[in-house]
Write a structure and sequence with these properties.
single chain; 277 residues; 2 domains; two-stranded antiparallel ribbon; two-stranded antiparallel sheet; 6 strands; 10% strand; elongated
Length: 277
């Protein structure tokens, strides 16, 4: 279902059509965290305040220390007091850290003294993580840089429009020589802060898969088409390093094209092999 666009966005008169900058995005993140915290999604890990007993600690007794050990960063907690100074790297570290500590509240008792609220006692981590992913990705849609939180709790580059399904599509083979290479290539390409060199390695991983599939390629493509397919990897600085390589091109742009082209080609070949069976 296509997300509804309101008037100013439709006519391209909304100043935030392309998303909010980090400065404007951070307060939105704090509001989401506070709402989830109020709803009990971080009670199991970080505890809660009771009007009678004060702070009831959770599994993470000292979040400041825990964050210092795991993120190796100071001035991160408490989020509502520190988030306005976060860098983008801080923000994404915290999003991933909260993924590890979220859980859905299931059962508890209501403490009505001064309207204290729910004292949650049982939790479900998997349901909490799935809900958290949904809410964070809804929020990340508003950021002016395109990232998503994966099912494994990692910030990844969002697929370019029209290519998102290729990351979600099943790989129609159980061959670990193929699956492992493809998974590694996708991770290299999409991970936060991936360098141009890491993207080159992602393309190389996919070209290695095509090399592995060469016997099948010979049945599907003409000799010229097969040669053209490997020309990209062999002569444009992907697989070899010598003075014959062509390197005078915009790598940040063309590596993306190479990556999607090779990934789509691999899916096509594997599906053709399965259909022939």
């Amino acid at each position: 279902m296509t997300k509804r666009q309101y008037y100013s966005t439709r006519i391209d008169k909304n100043p935030n059509t392309k998303g909010f900058t980090l400065v404007d995005f951070l307060p939105l993140f704090v509001r989401l965290f506070n709402q989830l915290n109020k709803d009990g999604y971080f009670t199991e890990s970080f505890g809660f305040e009771c009007v009678n007993s004060g702070l009831i600690p959770g599994n993470v007794v000292d979040p400041v220390y825990d964050i210092l050990i795991k993120l190796r960063k100071k001035n991160i907690w408490p989020i509502e007091n520190k988030a306005d100074k976060y860098s983008e790297e801080d923000l994404f570290d915290v999003i991933e850290y909260l993924f590890d500590n979220v859980s859905r509240p299931i059962e508890g008792t209501y403490h009505d003294w001064q309207d204290c609220g729910m004292h949650w006692e049982t939790f479900n981590k998997e349901e909490g993580k799935q809900y958290y992913i949904t809410k964070i990705n809804e929020l990340l849609e508003l950021y002016d840089k395109k990232y998503v939180l994966s099912d494994h709790g990692e910030i990844l580059l969002k697929a370019e429009k029209g290519f998102d399904r290729i990351f979600e599509a099943d790989i129609p083979t159980k061959d670990i020589n193929i699956n492992g290479k493809i998974d590694n290539a996708i991770y290299r390409f999409r991970k936060y802060g991936a360098s141009v060199e890491e993207r080159r390695l992602a393309v190389r991983d996919l070209s290695d898969v095509l090399e592995y599939l060469k016997p099948s390629l010979k049945k599907l493509l003409s000799t010229k088409d097969e040669s053209d397919l490997f020309n990209i990897a062999n002569n444009f600085g992907i697989r070899h390093h010598n003075d014959k390589q062509q390197n005078n091109y915009d790598k940040s742009l063309w590596f993306s094209w190479m990556f999607y082209f090779y990934l789509a080609t691999i899916h096509l070949i594997l599906r053709k092999i399965e259909n022939d069976k």
